[in-house]
Amino acid sequence: MEKSDEALMLQLQTGDLLSFDTLVKRWEKPLLNYCYRMVNDLPLAEDLRQEVFLRIYKSAKTYRPTAQFSTWMYRIATNLCLDTLTKQQRRKEMPIDTYLDSESEGFDERLIDPSNPPHAVVIRKETESRVRSALACLPEDQRVVITLRHYNGMKFHEIAAIVERPISTVKSRMTAGMERLSRMLSKQE
Amino acid sequence: MDCRFFREQIIVENYEELEAEAKKSLEAHLQTCRECTQFQVNLNETQQTLDQWEEVDRPIDIEALHKAIQPKPLSWWARSPAWRWLSWGVAACLILVISLSALAWIGVDIKWEDRGLTLRIGQETVPEITAQELVRLLQAERHATQVEIVKQLQGALDEFSEQLQVHLDERQKQTNAQLTLIYQGLQSQRVQDLELIRQELQQLAGATEAEFLETQRAFEFILASHVSEIQEDIK
């Protein structure tokens, strides 16, 4: 039977590095994608993921299993992403096209996938670019909520715990964000 | 309830978190509200579009992570206790030297004397004095001492006179007239003696030390003789 995240954290408190490795393996992909969707920069997202795991390791001794591990982890990641965005002031310094170019210029492995016809891949890539562009244009508080709910599958009450806001605020941010995304994505079509 | 509320409910429903009661209420609203129905359609499309951003999968460099979480190795000097203590000692000496220099710079007098390191803040004022002034001061001090002794002797004399008077008063009450005459003579003599002593004492404040001591001895002798006489009388 697979051990829970909280049990692994308690083992880590006793110095068990293997439990830390298990946690890393379990969460590396969701965490990377969360950071990536927040900062829209894959190399930076990888650095942030590494930093989140470092912080988890360093603060393992102070961890108390009163809340879910995932909530705690995403709170660390959210704060880190928002700090990074604030420091870099990415929106002011970089136009939105730069976000798209930073990833779209690389070689896409999906182009050689025989199950994906080339034109479908191109269309999909184009849509992905539009989504990334639209998400990057959202205010950060709305982007956090939409990313956690839509992509990372967190429940509304869990998101409320992560961002430390009432659940009603989370839902209203979600509604405002989704309405905004609908307008942006429908205009581009 | 307004459409704003139901649009929030639509989003919650689309993520399958709406409770059964609220779901029924929403469905009833959607049957009557075209705008909200359209909102739901748009939301479904938006969610599908959002799904087009596929997940990336880049495994973490676990070795680099392990390296990052390991405590940094100590430098060569920190590893050796001798070097570590030496460096602390050098640092402490430097701090001491800098502190003493700073104190000297702000005007604190620092000297190494027999008792050890002495710090003196500000100038010590030693008044200049001449030999004549010193003699005058010593004389004044001696004079003050003499005056004090005279005062003490006068006090003792007064006390003795008082006791003598009490004694004589007691004796006078006795009926022996002869004795009374004798005692009166004695009293007269002693009163004269005492008056003499008082006069001498008044001059004594300005006397030399040798004169003072001589007079003091004379007074003591007179007083002692009076005391012995009185004692003899009493017997």
Helical content of chain A (DSSP H or I, runs of 4+): over 70%
Question: What's the CATH superfamily of the largest domain in chain A, by name?
Answer: RNA polymerase sigma factor, region 2, helix turn helix motif
The main sheet of chain B comes to: 2 strands, antiparallel
Which descriptor suits the 3D outline of chain A?
A: globular
Which oligomerization state do the chains in this entry correspond to?
A: heterodimer
Kindly give the count of domains of chain B: 3
Quote the distance from N terminus to C terminus of chain B. Answer: 131 Å
Say what the CATH topology of the largest domain in chain A is: Rna Polymerase Sigma Factor, Chain: A
Q: State the end-to-end CA separation of chain A.
A: 47 Å
Question: What is Rg of chain A?
Answer: 18 Å
SS strand fraction of chain B? 5-15%
Shape of chain B: elongated
The averaged pLDDT of chain A comes out at 85
Please state roughly what percent of the residues of chain A sit in beta strands, choosing from under 5%, 5-15%, 15-25%, 25-35%, 35-45% or over 45%: under 5%
Mean pLDDT of chain B: 82
What is the number of strand segments of chain B?
A: 2
Largest interface (C-beta under 8 Å): A-B, 41 and 30 residues
Q: Specify the structural class of chain A.
A: mainly alpha
Descriptive keywords:
heterodimer; A: 189 residues; Rna Polymerase Sigma Factor, Chain: A; Arc Repressor Mutant, subunit A; 3 domains; 10 helices; 76% helix; B: 235 residues
Structure, explained:
The complex is a heterodimer of chains A (189) and B (235). With 189 residues, chain A is mainly α. In chain A, 76% of the residues lie in helices and 0% in strands. Chain A folds into three domains: 1-91, RNA polymerase sigma factor, region 2, helix turn helix motif (Rna Polymerase Sigma Factor, Chain: A, Orthogonal Bundle), CATH 1.10.1740; 95-136; 138-189, Winged helix-like DNA-binding domain superfamily/Winged helix DNA-binding domain (Arc Repressor Mutant, subunit A, Orthogonal Bundle), CATH 1.10.10. Chain A has ten helices and no strands. Chain A is globular and about 55 Å long. Chain B has 235 residues and is mainly alpha-helical. Chain B has three domains: 3-48, no CATH class; 77-121, no CATH class; 131-234, no CATH class. Chain B has helices at residues 3-14, 20-32, 34-50, 62-69, 76-79, 81-105, 131-172, 177-204, 209-234, and strands at residues 108-113, 116-121. In chain B, strands 1-2 form a two-stranded antiparallel sheet. In chain B, helix 1 crosses helix 2 (20-32). The longest helix of chain B has 42 residues, at 131-172. Chain B starts with a helix and ends with a helix. Chain A binds chain B through residues 17, 20-21, 24, 28-29, 32-33, 36-37, 42, 46, 49-50, 53-54, 57-58, 124, 127-128, 130-132, 135, 146, 149-151, 155-156, 171-172, 174-175, 178-179, 181-182, 185-186, and chain B through 4, 7-8, 11-12, 15, 17, 42-43, 45-47, 49-50, 52-62, 64-66, 68-69.
